[in-house]
Structure formats: structure tokens, C-alpha cells
Amino acid sequence: MMDIRAVRMAPLVACVLWLGMCPALAQVQTNTPRDDVEVIVSPRESGTQSRVRDFFRSMKQRIASVTGQVLPFTKCEKWSVPKANLEAVKKEAAKRGVVVTELGADWNHVMRSAPADTQLNEKQRAIMELAKAGKATAGVKLMAAPPPAVLEHALMKDANNPAAPRDAGKITVALGDNRTKTIIRTGVEIKPDMCIWRGVVEETGALVTLMWWPNGRMAGTMQEPGRIYSIRHMGGPIYAMIEMGGDRMPQEHAPMPVRLRSDDPNARDDPLVNQGDASLLRPVTLGMRTPAPPALKQPQQKQVVAPPAAPGAADVVIDVIIAYTRKAAANYTDIKNELVDLSIEEANESFRMSGLGNIKLRLVHAYQTSYVEEGAHFDHVWRFADRGDGYMEEIHGLRDKHRADVAVLIVDDPQGCGLATRVYADADEAFAVVHHDCAALTYSVAHEIGHLIGARHEPTMDKVRTPFPYGHGYVNGTKWRDIMSYKESCDGCPRVPVWSNPKVLIKGEPAGTPQQDNARVISEQAARVAGFR
Fold it and tell me: Which residue among 71, 84, 249, 442 is least packed, with the fewest CB closer than 10 Å?
């Protein structure tokens, strides 16, 4: 069995190795004297980091006990300075265009309430108003982050030291209204231009993801019982902390459009809601191309759990193109970085946590489409997928150009969280639509791509046993549900980013059964989808 905590710690190893290569400016003392002060040293103007290095060399000649380390992302430095020499260092720094910031007791506070007199521009005010008007929104607070180098130190302190005390990996995030959360770092993934920081809330174990860039910009999510928080960058050090009620989030799939219902408008059996498969209503639509032939049924297989991928297994990469509407983009300062990238990273984390670390989504292109949202999710997804209907025709050429296996359209339409063209799609119909609030917060980009690969909901919602009898989500009573399951099946319990898998443990309990093993579906079918382009 694989413990979910062991999976989550794996990215930290890569960070340890990477950070271990960073140069030290001087041998750091293992026992810092009590009268030493820790400071962050950064250039007053961006692009002049060499001033900091030159300044250190000068100070080291004058004050031998000064020690320091390079912060690899911002290229600023963290020094330990004898308290008696601190004022002299500050005065010399001012002459050289260098800023010295003392690290106080609150050095690890990465989010605070913004000053009361913070002024917002027109675009920022518009983003705030859209957030407040969201159907799932329970509250919106204006927050502020520390300078980039201070933030880097808070997030990365002792990440390259396995023997560091537990407190070294803790940060504090303010939620507004004098509420704060302490978050324990569980993993860090370093990429060429950004860092993905993951942790858990100390009191509850709820998951937290922060994406961080060297200029100090952040975006992220935090899960709490009954609440989900979205961290959106507003520009400079200012952020919106958007609190959403789990019970207010859209249902997983919007119901079928009224015009497509049978004679009984109150019919309870809605294939879009129950199965998330838009192709089931395809025959009753008009003016659309003939649907692709249904996939051949797979032969009945023994209900045996496939072994996890062997260490060193070849990567399976599904290339994704994401389009977003102007209406969706209006909710963000930079939707590509703050939402699109985040949703892809959250999907990849779900694979790692499910013993599917060799399977990855790769964003190959993201762009804003001119499509004006009108109608239901069913309309959006087929307008996106169809050729020759006059809607979003550019996607087909772009998909071929960038060799994207799967295409996703992000909209601002809270009728549902998303919809895929079909379960177990072919190359022509590997399309899905996702509401922006759900894309990362409830892992809906991953959920819809899961449908396209062949995964289904939990049996309570979807009793169909094809194409894979074991391809269903899993719900653990009222404790939690997996990435393909409905909150209605567990009295609103939280979703965890795991694909049903009896070999993965969540708090000591299996995340699936041999009959509910979507991880097996993903493992067996991801390569098929990765070969679409």
C-alpha cells in the first residue's frame, strides 16, 4: 500500500538537491550568536543584484563575522549580522542602493491584511466586484504579501535541510477578520521560472497549494472543512483572498438544457448530471455533425488491481491546449498564470498522489478566444468541439499546430463545474468545458480530462459499467470523496485530489476498491489519449 503522505513528500527531494547546488557566500555558522540579526539584503532597483554581491564582499572585509546565503530565485541574500554592526551595515547599504530588511518574529507571515488606505485601480476594483458577486462567494478580503525576497525566505527556509526542525517549514496566512492559519510545508517543486509550494493546514490537515514567481507574485488555493479559498493576485503586493462555501460551489455537471428534455421536464434521470457525458444527448441535437461511432466495448476483465508503475517507468504526457473566454479572464489579473497553470499543476499533483507519477498533463498553449458565452455547458462544449458551425473555429488549427491531445475551454458559467464531450473520447472529440471557479479549486480540469480518458463517477451517481467495469470514483462514507465523485454522495464531504485506487491510503484507509479503481483506468488509457496528436 502507498501512503498518501509519502507521495506528497517526493517533490521536496528534488528541491533539496537543487537548492544544495546554490552557492553560499560564506560558511554559515551552525550556532548563530544570540546577538546576531537576520536580514534580507536586496537591490533597490530590479536587475541590479550584482550590487548585493559586491556589497557582501565589502562588508565581509570589514566585519568578518557576517555570514550570508544567496536566495536562488530572487538572487537576493539572507545575512546574519552582529547586532552591534547592524546600523553601520544599513547606512552603507543606503549609499550603495541596497535595501536591508530585518526579519522579525513574523518573518514567516506570507499574507497579511492590506492597509486600510490601499487604493485600487479600475481593473482591480472590477475583479473585486466580480469576486464578491460570485454565487459561491462567502467573503472577499484584500490582503498584502511581503517583498519578494522576504517571501522566498519564508517559503524556502531550510528546504534543503532534511534535519531542520518542523517549525522551519511553517508559514502563516491571514484570512482576514483576525483569522490566521498555520501551514506546514510538505513539498516544493522547482521549475525554471516558478516554484510550486505545497503544505497542509496544521489544525486540520487540509491541503494548500501556492504557485510563486521570482517577482513575488503568488496564486493558490487552500482547502478547509466547508470552505475553499482562492488567492488571486491583484498587482504588486496586493491580493484578493476569496472565501467560497463548499455547499455553494456549482454542481459537478450542469443539467441538460430545457430544450433537450423529453416530454417530462421534471425527469430525474439526467445523463449530463449523472454521467457527465455530453454525447448521450447528441442524437437529439440539430445542425451538428454526425457523432463519432461509439468506442468498442472492452472485454470483461477480472477485477484485479493493476500494480503501480515501476520506478523509472516512461513518462506518458498528455498535451493540453486551453482556451478561455473574455468573461472568464475578467476575474483575474493574469488568468494564464493564476488559473490555467494552477489547474494543470493540481491535476499533475493528483496523478502523483495516486501512484501515477509517470503520467502528466503538459500545457502546450493557452489563449483568449472571442467566443461570447451563451446557452448551457452542453452548448459551449459542442461549439468548441464542432467544425464548421461558426464557433471557435480557430481551435482546430491551433490544436493541430501545437499537437494538443486534449482541448479545454474555460468559461464564467456557474451552471455547473464542467462537461466533457463523452466518457472515453476519441481524438476528434477530446474536448471539455470548465467553469473558472472550479478549474483548480475543485480539480475540475482534471475531472473532465479524466472523463475523456475513460473514468466515471462513483456508482451512486453513475451505474454504467462500460467501457471499464472498475472505472468508477470512490466515496469514503461522509469523510471524503475522490476526484471523480459528487458531494451529494457524501453529505457535502470534501474532495481530495486522488483517483480511486485501493493501493493508496488516505489517513490509513484505502482510496478505492478493485471495483472502483479509476487509477487503473488512467494507467491503462493515458497513453491512448497522449497519442491523439
Answer: 84
* 434 vs 250: CA distance, rounded Å: 11
Catalytic residue ranges: 448
pLDDT class for 307, splitting at 50, 70, 90?
Answer: very low
Backbone angles phi, psi at 191, to 5 degrees: -120, 165
434 with 450: CB under 8 angstroms?
no
Residues 6+ apart with CB under 8 A from 5: 186
State pLDDT tens for residues 472-502. 999 999 999 999 999 989 988 999 999 999 9
Given strand 509-511, what is the order of strands in its sheet? 2-3, 501-506, 509-511
Q: Long-range CB contacts (< 8 A, 24+ apart) of 180-188?
A: 181/222, 181/224, 183/208, 183/222, 185/12, 185/155, 185/159, 186/5, 186/8, 186/9, 186/12, 187/8, 187/9, 187/10, 187/11, 187/12, 187/15, 188/11, 188/12, 188/15, 188/155, 188/156, 188/159
Name the pLDDT band for 112 (thresholds 50, 70, 90).
very high
DSSP track, 350-375: HHHHTT-TTEEEEEEEEEE--PPP-S
Q: Which of 171, 157, 175 lies closest to 112, judged by CA?
A: 175
Supply 512's cell numbers: 478505492
Contact in structure between 47 and 97 (CB atoms under 8 Å): no
Q: How confident is the model at residue 374 (pLDDT cuts 50, 70, 90)?
A: very high
Closest among 46, 52, 48 to 77, alpha carbons compared: 52
Grid coordinates belonging to 8: 506528497
- 309 confidence band (pLDDT: 50, 70, 90): low
Distances (CA, A) of 277 to 149, 316, 335: 47, 25, 27
Q: What are the DSSP calls for 328-350, one per residue?
A: HHTT-S-HIIIIIHHHHHHHHHH
- Cβ-in-10-Å burial (0-12, 13-18, 19+) of 310 comes to exposed
Measured between alpha carbons, how far is 142 from 6 in angstroms, rounded to an integer?
35
Cα distance between the two ends of the chain: 35
Q: Decide: 312 and 398 in contact? Cβ < 8 Å.
A: no
* Residue 260, burial from CB neighbour count under 10 angstroms (0-12, 13-18, 19+): middle
Compute the mean pLDDT over every residue in the chain, rounded to the nearest whole number: 86
Rounded Cα distance between 444 and 167, Å, is 33
- Please name which of 103, 100, 86, 89 lies closest in space to residue 41, comparing C-alpha atoms: 100
Here the cell at position 250 is 456549482
